[in-house]
Hints:
The mean pLDDT is 96. The protein has one domain: 3-Layer(aba) Sandwich (Rossmann fold), CATH 3.40.50.720. The protein contains 9 helices and 7 strands. The N and C termini lie far apart (39 Å). The longest helix has 29 residues, at 112-140. Strands 3-2-1-4-5-6-7 form a 7-stranded parallel sheet, with helices on both faces. By secondary structure, the chain is an alpha/beta fold. The site of nicotinamide-adenine-dinucleotide has 27 residues, from helix 2 and helix 7.
Amino acid sequence: MNHSIEKLFDxxxxxxIVTGGAMGIGKGVAIRLAEAGAKIMIVDIIDHKDAExxxxxxxxxxxxxxxxxxxxxxxxxxxxxxxxTLKEFGDINILVNNAGIFSYCPITELTEELxxxxxxxxxxxxxxxxKLVVSKMIEKNHGGKIINISSIDSIKPSGNLSQxxxxxxxxxxxxxxxxxxxxxxxxxxxxxxxxxVNTPGGTKIAGENLTAEQQKAMKTQTEQFVKMLPLQRMGExxxxxxxxxxxxxxxxxxxxxxxxxxxxxxxxx
Length: 269
Ligand SMILES: NC(=O)c1ccc[n+]([C@@H]2O[C@H](COP(=O)([O-])OP(=O)(O)OC[C@H]3O[C@@H](n4cnc5c(N)ncnc54)[C@H](O)[C@@H]3O)[C@@H](O)[C@H]2O)c1
């Protein structure tokens, strides 16, 4: 293998499914992969019209993109993602399992509903969509790349997020377990563990159920936290997009079952 740098990161002709790609980290990933030449199928729960600004942004960059509205918490909705992607683009080479939800919840307030919602989206959908995509890649006999977005919370819990942390711990182990089985088919499966990233979901959690005073305190706390971070800034969706491009490209061909930590140094604080 003797690739030029340009060729190493070139995804021309590849088809990538990005879940939760309408905003936040998923949008950053979708944009990066499209810029590298991949055709993108965004799957998200929001209405098509609300995802239109993201789709337009990708098209303006010269990318090819399609959209499917689906609630990934119900695995009955997953097969149509495969059929629709094959119908529109003819193949599937890359899957980015990004859609995820997170809400602060102390152990004493944990409910079955929150647990099930979180685990159904963050872990169960990752398992069953990967199953469908892996089956198709094996059938087509061309290998592929699966990238799961876990979290640094899967390594070090930040507190009051037990339902989230357990789901993301599951994602990290699922990455390893599936990777062990799929290597022989040329399918690499890795996960990215982001630290704090500026996204609509991140902003929402900072304002969730908080009074104006609490929000002010949270803002001050965030500013202090950012100052203590070795890289002294929050992450941006494109930081995760860059890592996803690496894992989707030939540059990472000898990596599988690994976690790529992209956290501005949070874990070494
Ligand atoms: N933002 C952070 O600081 C951070 C840190 C570590 C890990 N992560 C992980 O990164 C991923 C993306 O997070 P984000 O901050 O961009 O979140 P976000 O809330 O900004 O975006 C999440 C996207 O997923 C979609 N989505 C939500 N529920 C869905 C469902 N049931 N079916 C289909 N799509 C659904 C949303 O519509 C949205 O487009 C998540 O898995 C999250 O756990 C985020």
